[in-house]
Amino acid sequence: MVSYQHMYKNTRINNKLIMRKFKYQLLWVIILFIGIMPMDLTAQENSESERIDALKEMVKSESFNLGMLIQSRAVFSFDDNGTRTFSVPQARFKGTGTLDGGFSYNLHFDVADGFTLLDAQIGYAVNEQTTFTVGAQKPGISYEFLTGPHKIDFVTRSLVVTALTQNREFGAKLAGGYQSGFSYSLGIFNGNRLNQNDNNKFYYASRFAYETSINNEGNLIVGVNGSYGEQSNTSIASVSLPNIEGERIIYGGDFRFENTKVILASELLAANLEYTGFTEEDNVFGMHLTGGFKFEKSEVLARFENLNTNLLNDQERLVFGYTRYPTQQTAFRINYLLPLDDTSFSNQGLALNYQITF
């Protein structure tokens, strides 16, 4: 005869299985609903264009250009011990403009988690090809880092770009571009993010790029970059790497080809780093290889990426992405993350991003 205790235990197990199945089904329903809405926007395009034009008249001009970005994100790990959370990683406001005498400004901040200063630049146009800027800004390294968060291909930037370059600095930069397609950026910075210089040594960063059209059907950008500095217990950008104590040498290259049908991009970065609390120098190498197809209002993408070091754990993963553009100002991204450095594949998950920007 079956005991009540045994029946109760089996009932609890069945209930857990039912609830787990329900959670996954609900998640996929939400993803499907957001991903396909609205599928047919033909009837809305004219009125949408009128509203956008009216908005531009109010907040956008040569001397004052106001922009905004809001991103809402969800992360869902298939592992019960993994990360499952909603967040607002970006709530940004940006004011830019060109003034008399060749002067310009860029004030950019984020209020998603308190007030965070991003850019505070004063610019001066030396001539038509060259601009000199001072203040808080991005050093001219890494194509993906120089691309705004609302325009990157996936929910987040690649592992290596996040680890080595994703920070702003106080400093001065000379940058320019020519009709031939050649562009450059040369900068000198404090080297410890948006803080006072704590060791009286500077961080130097440079980038050179060439952009051209391929048979008038696509755009190709090829770039190289390098940077050097000596820091004192300073974090680069994220928790991926320990704080720097000593020399930081970073160099690499990138390319991107894009037309109305395909996207093909890659970036390689390498670094020689000295860490706080480590006696040995670390040699870091990472890359991503991205490919995708473009449709009328959507993109399908895939990426292989890795981050390898001598002293720390290596990371390697595949990312599959789908991006939907319901309107000119909105985008929905869903990424499937598959870690290749985990033999059990227990840390698979989804990352979703919904944004509005103007």
Secondary-structure blueprint:
Elements: H1 4-36, H2 45-59, E1 65-77, E2 84-98, E3 103-110, E4 116-125, E5 130-137, H3 143-146, H4 159-164, E6 169-177, E7 182-189, E8 203-214, E9 218-234, E10 244-259, E11 262-275, E12 281-294, E13 298-309, E14 315-324, E15 330-339, E16 349-357
Antiparallel strand pairs: 1-2, 1-16, 2-3, 3-4, 4-5, 5-6, 6-7, 7-8, 8-9, 9-10, 10-11, 11-12, 12-13, 13-14, 14-15, 15-16
Question: How many DSSP E strands?
Answer: 16
Compute the gyration radius: what is it?
Answer: 23 Å
Gross morphology: globular
Give the class from helix and strand content and strand pairing: alpha+beta
Largest sheet: 16 strands, antiparallel, barrel
Task: Provide the residue-averaged pLDDT.
Answer: 87
In quaternary terms, these chains amount to single chain
Distance between the termini: 69 Å
Percent in helix: 10-25%
- In what range is the share of β-strand residues? over 45%
Number of helices: 4
Model regions low in confidence, pLDDT < 50 over at least 5 residues: none
> What is the strand arrangement across the widest sheet?
1-2-3-4-5-6-7-8-9-10-11-12-13-14-15-16
| Sequence of secondary-structure elements | HHEEEEEHHEEEEEEEEEEE
Structure description:
The chain has helices spanning 4-36, 45-59, 143-146, 159-164, and strands at residues 65-77, 84-98, 103-110, 116-125, 130-137, 169-177, 182-189, 203-214, 218-234, 244-259, 262-275, 281-294, 298-309, 315-324, 330-339, 349-357. The protein has a 16-stranded antiparallel β-barrel. The longest helix is centred in the first third of the chain and has 33 residues, at 4-36. It has 358 residues and is of the alpha+beta class.
